[in-house]
UniProtKB/TrEMBL annotation:
<keyword id="KW-0732">Signal</keyword>
<dbReference type="GO" id="GO:0015159">
    <property type="term" value="F:polysaccharide transmembrane transporter activity"/>
</dbReference>
<dbReference type="InterPro" id="IPR003715">
    <property type="entry name" value="Poly_export_N"/>
</dbReference>
<protein>
    <submittedName>
        <fullName>Polysaccharide export protein</fullName>
    </submittedName>
</protein>
<feature type="domain" description="Polysaccharide export protein N-terminal">
    <location>
        <begin position="87"/>
        <end position="207"/>
    </location>
</feature>
<dbReference type="Pfam" id="PF02563">
    <property type="entry name" value="Poly_export"/>
</dbReference>
<feature type="signal peptide">
    <location>
        <begin position="1"/>
        <end position="25"/>
    </location>
</feature>
<dbReference type="InterPro" id="IPR049712">
    <property type="entry name" value="Poly_export"/>
</dbReference>
Length: 422
C-alpha cells in the first residue's frame, strides 16, 4: 500500500508539472482585448508588419501648436478657376420680358400694339403719359393726332422663353442668339435691328425668370428646390438660409457640393468656423445637406467596445475619455492610450512623418500617457473628430495574471488529487 501511495504521488506531481509547462506554451493564445503597447511599437517599427503605414505621435504642446496652425481648404480644387459672372447672363430656359418704345406710328405702336398692353409715353418728351391694352400683337389704336410725332408708344411683348439652343424669335427681327449675353446687350441688338424699320426705337430687356442662374439645394433643409442666384453673389451658407435653414444642428450636418466633375463634402460646422471656405455658389451647382451624427468608437481595456455619440458641438479628448469611464483599473495600461485617426497628408508631413503615396490621408496613432498630469490639460485642447477611435491598451502584467489564473485553474484539480492520495 505504501508503494502504491508513493507511485500515485509521483504520477500526480509529473502530471501537474506537465500541465504547468504545457500552459506556458499557450500563453500566446490567452484571451486578450487587443495589442499591448510593446506590440504596437514593434508593428510600428517593422515595415513588413506595418502594412497600412500608420504613424505614431505623442500628445504634446508642439502637436497642438501645429494643429492650431492648420487651416483646412477642402474647396481648393474649386477655387482654381476664376469666376467673374454677375449671375445675370441669359441662358437656355430663362424667361425674358421685352419692352419697346417707338415714336409716332411705329411697327409695334402707331399702326399696331402688343398683347399685354400699350402705353403712350409722352412723358418721355415732357408730356403726360397714358396707357391702354389690346389683344392683338400688331393691332391697336393709333395715338391721338395731336400727339403724333411727339408721343412715345410702349409695347410689352409677351414673355419669351430662351430655347435650348439659346435663341429667341422676335417679329421684324427674326431668330437670334441671346445665351451668354447680358440683358443690356440683347436690348442693344434688338434696337439696332429695329432702327431701320421703326422711328427712334428704344428697347428694354428684363430677366424675369433666370432658370440658368440658379442652384439646386436638397436634403435636410426646410425648403428644398431651386434657388435663384443674383448679382449679390450668394455663398454656401446664403443658399442654405434661402432654403429656410436646416432640420438638424449644423454640427451634425454635412455639405456635399457638386460642381461639374468635382464633388466636395465637408462638415457644415467647418464652413461656419472658417469663413474663407464659405465660397460663392455658381449657376448649375448642386448642394446636398445630409444628416450624419458624429460618433467615436472605443476599443481595448475600457470595459466594452462601444460607439459613443458626441451630443455637443465640440468634444475634447479628455471629455471623450471621461465619457467611457477611462482606462480600466484592473487590466488597462494608462501610459498607453491611443487615438486613431486618418489625418490629411499635409499635416502628416508637418509632423515629420511619412505620408501615404496612394491616398490623401494617412492613419496616425496619437499616444497619450494618462500617468502624466499634463496630458489631461493637453487633452482638453485636443478636439475630437467624427469617426475617431480610442484604444486602451492592456497592461504588461495583465498577461501574467491571466497566465497565473490559467495555471491555477489547471493544477488545482491535481493538488486536490494529491491531497486525497495522502
Amino acid at each position: 500500500m505504501v508503494l502504491c501511495k508513493g507511485s500515485a504521488k509521483k504520477r500526480v506531481k509529473l502530471l501537474v508539472a506537465a500541465m504547468a509547462f504545457g500552459s506556458l506554451g499557450a500563453c500566446k493564445s490567452l484571451p486578450d482585448s487587443g495589442p499591448t503597447a510593446s506590440h504596437i511599437l514593434k508593428v510600428y517599427k517593422n515595415p513588413k508588419k506595418n502594412l497600412v503605414g500608420f504613424g505614431m505621435v505623442d500628445l504634446s504642446p508642439d502637436l497642438l501648436t501645429l494643429m492650431a496652425m492648420e487651416r483646412p481648404a477642402p474647396f481648393a480644387a474649386l477655387q482654381g478657376s476664376r469666376y467673374q459672372s454677375g449671375n445675370d447672363a441669359i441662358g437656355p430656359g430663362d424667361t425674358l420680358q421685352i419692352s419697346i418704345y417707338e415714336m409716332g406710328n411705329g411697327l409695334f405702336g402707331g399702326g399696331g400694339t402688343n398683347a399685354s398692353g400699350r402705353a403712350e409715353a409722352s412723358g418721355m418728351l415732357g408730356g403726360a403719359a397714358n396707357s391702354s391694352s389690346s389683344l392683338g400683337i400688331l393691332s391697336s389704336a393709333s395715338p391721338p393726332a395731336e400727339h403724333t410725332g411727339s408721343t412715345a408708344t410702349l409695347t410689352n411683348l409677351p414673355p419669351m422663353v430662351v430655347s435650348h439652343q439659346g435663341t429667341i424669335t422676335l417679329p421684324y427681327v427674326g431668330t437670334f442668339k441671346v445665351a451668354g449675353r447680358m440683358p443690356e446687350q440683347v436690348a442693344s441688338q434688338i434696337q439696332s435691328a429695329l432702327s431701320r424699320k421703326s422711328q427712334a426705337p428704344q428697347v428694354l430687356v428684363r430677366l424675369v425668370d433666370g432658370v440658368s442662374n440658379s442652384a439646386i439645394v436638397y436634403g435636410e433643409v426646410k425648403r428644398p428646390g431651386r434657388v435663384a442666384l443674383t448679382p449679390n453673389h450668394e455663398s454656401l451658407l446664403d443658399v442654405v438660409a434661402l432654403a429656410q435653414g436646416t432640420l438638424y444642428p449644423s454640427e451634425d450636418l454635412m455639405l456635399r457640393l457638386t460642381r461639374g466633375r468635382h464633388i466636395i463634402q465637408v462638415p457644415m460646422s467647418l464652413i461656419e468656423h472658417y469663413p474663407s471656405q464659405n465660397i460663392q455658389i455658381r449657376p448649375g451647382d448642386r448642394l446636398e445637406v445630409y444628416y450624419q451624427p458624429r460618433t467615436f468608437t472605443v476599443f481595448g481595456a475600457a470595459g466594452k467596445v462601444s460607439e459613443v455619440p458626441f451630443k455637443v458641438p465640440q468634444l475634447s479628448l479628455t471629455e471623450a475619455i471621461a465619457r467611457v469611464g477611462g482606462p480600466n483599473n484592473s487590466w488597462a495600461n494608462p501610459r498607453a492610450v491611443y487615438l486613431l485617426r486618418f489625418e490629411d497628408n499635409h499635416l502628416v508631413r508637418r509632423l515629420g512623418l511619412r505620408a501615404s503615396d496612394t491616398a490623401p490621408v494617412t492613419p496616425i496613432l496619437y499616444r497619450i500617457n494618462m500617468m502624466n498630469p499634463g496630458s489631461y490639460f493637453l487633452g482638453q485642447k485636443f478636439a475630437m473628430k467624427n469617426k475617431d477611435m480610442l484604444y486602451f491598451s492592456n497592461a504588461p502584467a495583465d498577461e501574467f495574471y491571466k497566465l497565473f489564473g490559467l495555471i491555477s485553474t489547471i493544477i488545482q484539480p491535481g493538488i486536490t488529487a494529491g491531497m486525497m492520495a495522502r
